[in-house]
Amino acid sequence: MRRRFLGPVLAVGVTAMLAPALATSAATAAPAAAPSTASSSAAKSALDRYVKQKPQWKRCDADAPATLECATIKVPLDYRVPGGKRIDVAISRIRSTAPDKRHGVLFSNPGGPGVEGLYMPMGMQERLPESARQKYDLIGFDPRGVGRSSPVSCGLEPEEENWVRPYKEETFDKDVAWARDVANKCDEKAGDTLPHITTRNTARDMDLLRAILGEKKITYVGFSYGTYLGAVYTQLFPGRADRFVLDSAVDPARAWRGMIQWWAEGAEPAFDRWTEWAAGRSEKYGLGDTPKEVDRTFWDLVAQADEKPVEVDGYPTTGDDIRAGMRGAVFTPEYATEAFVELKKAAAGEPASAKELAAFTGSEGAGRTGSAADAADAAEVPSDNMMATFWAVVCGDNSAAWSRDPESYRQDAIEDKGRYPLYGDFASGIKPCAFWDTSVEPATKVHNKVGSLVVQNEWDSQTPLPSGQALHADLKRSRMVTVLGGEGHGVYPNGNACTDDTVNGYLLTGKLPAKDVTCEATADSNAEARKNQKRDVLPGSPLPERAPDRF
Fold first, then answer.
1. I want to staple 383 with a disulfide (CB 3.0 to 4.6 A). Which of 6, 17, 48, 373 is the partner?
2. Are strands 241-247 and 453-459 parallel, antiparallel or unpaired?
3. The model's pTM
4. Which residues neighbour 449 within 8 Å (Cβ) at sequence distance 6 or greater?
5. pLDDT at res. 380
């Protein structure tokens, strides 16, 4: 079966939930002792039964290689009540190619939230050097609620999955109704489950899996949302974290409304950079001789399309569509310029390249956001599974980040469109989280001394450079690799010896660089990053297709 990607020993963490004072970091495979009370003793006994599971490994699919094995484990839906309802978590592995050189297990996560990771070991096997493949069993998993891991659904229709919405006075009441309806449908369809589909619980699932596999620690490579998952794991289980690579990083303090708003904030310097780039090549592209002229050319076309939408690939493309499409495109100036030139041709009624116009016909175009149904290629996975788990995490990880007053979103959208005209109203507008239930736990404050390696491009559309710098500051013993001039969301691997050798060296030896590393992007490394960004085939890309409305 062909699958697609689409951009927080065990009992230590569980007893931390039951009694925070017991959260130790002893690196043993067996569960830690629980409090000496009847209820906690029962919880400890229930957790012991989970750890004793023996995965029944088998070939994942008929068309998957025999080296990729899959199994299913049971985990508590609510770790506060480990003897209560259980759910499935689908796991996978590719064994070390040299057992005598094996160091341990390497978990990975592709991003999301709401993205499947079961086939990640295949992509990691392709990308890692042979020396690293010898050292690790490669472990993948579909996070709880996703894919084959007891998938959840809100029963959303495709049109309800469009959440990238510009602010308009005349449609705001409809947008509020949409947000309320999505939250209500999720509550009605899966209200007993969604509150527990959180990053903290996924991190606990990872630690349970670690214990089941008999490992003292895990090594981890996480991309985008996966950096937050990894950071939460280090906070909950500092003694279980071995070598952690966090690529294209989320700022934990801005999970999640602030991270969405960073898409708008980060787009403005990228837009300015684009106008300079295009002006420097005015003879070729004809968008203006100065950055100001290029800026005026852009906004003139936006205004024109608001008056009369441009026909693009059979769709009427409004000024809002153009703003949304350019938001991600400008992080790669050449791509943005070529796309915009073709858009100008289409606006003038001239033949235009559909391929180059993809920036304006993809999932981020206002009113045309692609449905997660496109990704649900297994009959057992609900068509809205990705969207349901996205909202479960984005709203449920930190409900305190979301105002309950719809009018506050109106004001924020108006103000932020003024501050960040390309995307501010999209990012700050009303979301279903305004009507979501209160989180079952407070958000995780990441602040620890676990060693890790943060890897970041300078020009990243989804997790801007300041986001990676913030995570680096939160992880006090981390080192950071910054790729100056690096474009695209996702760095490792990119064919740049400076970045790849640093990451590989850490994974092989466990030794972090003595200080932060600055690399210079190359044309080839940026091309590789863009290829990873657009990759959408399985089995096994370490970076999935990067939808512009995901992390």
1. 373
2. parallel
3. 0.90
4. 238, 475, 476, 477
5. 85
